[in-house]
Amino acid sequence: MSTTVWPWYKTRHTCSAFPSFEQGQLGLSPRATLLVAAMIVLWVSGLLSALVDNIPYTAVTIPLVATLLAQLDAGTEGQILWWALALGACLGGNGTLIGASANVTVTGLAEKDGKRISFNEFTAFGAGVTAITLVMSSVYLSLWLYVGATSVNVVGAVVLVLIFAATWYSSKRSPLNCGASTPSLCLFREGIRAKVNL
Question: Could you tell me if 93 and 183 lie in one domain?
């Protein structure tokens, strides 16, 4: 009775933090697999960057994203993973007081000026901002991959110009009515008014 042993050199051995993402393994097209990977990188980066300072987090995650890119063999479309990491780490840092150094600096300056912002107050506001911006980033990255980077960036620039123009126009037509519920909008509108009057 003879037994056939599979030659060791025909076995694929990988040592990686990520499972192998070969075409068809997840039942998705290569582009859809790339989008799933980008969403995972974006949201995990956003959540972890809220808990850990975003600079060390990004430094540790760069080799993992490079390994994932090598496994996906995505070509030029693979740069979406770098954008997902950048957006997730940057925007996730807004989630908590310890998520970014700038958060600690601003709360220290506010306390020096007599307004104390607690960790819970900051997180209650910052978590909402982080969630909204991560959802916006998810839409942006999806469109970037399926519509095209140039088209999405041009449309995004036009939308930003229209928002700025509408804000500026409304600040010129209506008197500044600053209530307690919209202090940031009032500061934004006052800043625009100050720049226009210079």
Answer: no
- pLDDT surpasses 50 at 158: yes
Residues 172 and 102 in one domain: no
- Find the domain containing 188 and state its range: 148-198
132-151: pLDDT as tens digits = 999 999 999 999 888 888 88
Residues 154 and 98 in one domain: no
Dist. CA 179–CA 38, nearest whole Å: 40
Q: Do 40 and 134 share a structural domain?
A: yes
Q: Same structural domain for residues 160 and 82?
A: no
Do 32 and 126 lie in a common domain?
yes
Asked if 74 contacts 121 with a C-beta cutoff of 8 angstroms, the reply is no
Q: How buried is residue 93: exposed, middle or buried, by Cβ count under 10 Å (0-12/13-18/19+)?
A: buried
